[in-house]
Amino acid sequence: MRLPRGMITLTCAGMLLAPKARPGDRCPKEIACACASTTEIETGSDFPPLSEESSTRECNQKEKNGKRGLFRSWFHMAAETQGKQPDWLSPLATTSGRLKQEFRYDIWDQPATRGNRTYQFGGGKGLEFITSSRTQILLGIPSYTLPSPNGPVGGFGDLPLMLKFRIASAERGEGNYLLTFILGATAPTGSHRYGAGNAVLTPTLAFGKGFGKFDVQSTVGLNLPTGATAKLGRQLQWNTAFQYQAAWKLWPELEVNSTFYKTGPNAGDKQVFLTPGLGFGRVRLRKGFRFSSAAGLQIAVTRFHTYDHRWMFSERISF
Q1: Fewer Cβ atoms within 10 A, N terminus or C terminus of the chain?
Q2: How far apart are CA 232 and CA 234, in angstroms?
């Protein structure tokens, strides 16, 4: 039995030291496994040889480094993308045309009938992250509506989704402007009381311009239900936010939020809100995370309005 054992040992050594084995080649798992099988049969040991253990560690390390490199490349791309646009704080009601990486959660509080109040948790926001140098998507959280202390049972609304495509932008000192196409949508996942019952698409154009510490951000969009149009109707939405970057990371703002009802039960009507608010941020947290918040009050200034005196609170974590 000595001769076969020697031949096997020489064969394994020759395969491991062959000229074809280069540093860039894949890990020699098959070779290590073959040698390990022979060794285990001859010695009866349950432990793999040192060469296999080293190869496994090297392969695992390369895989981990690859994942870390991909993750870092994505963060680097997102940081460069955000650096090529204005650094304005997101307004309360007007959708920002900036591409950003942020988790946002809003809470609304408004008077209801018979002395009740209606609270909405979520506000149609959620997780926003950049997918390329020109695109960003939103995976929203269905809002939860809660009448209090009396009223109907609370429930969840529809699932909000959004795609942003940056057409043009320039950072502060290079023009300080942006132009973005936004395609918003809601999936009919809500309850019969708080959901639309049909998907709704909202193509929107967002644009803005900064003048030193002052900026104007505006959006024009159209709600297009995919069904039950007579019930849901079509609305033209026009929102404009006037912001100023003050001291101590404060961002006072005034928004004009307008809805023009084109079809449906309220066809021909319009409602306009003035929304004074105050933003704060962005404050650096650990490992690149930043915190910001905002609060404001929507006040109806037209005869027709579906609600009035809505308090809005917004919390954001950027990364």
Answers
A1: N
A2: 7
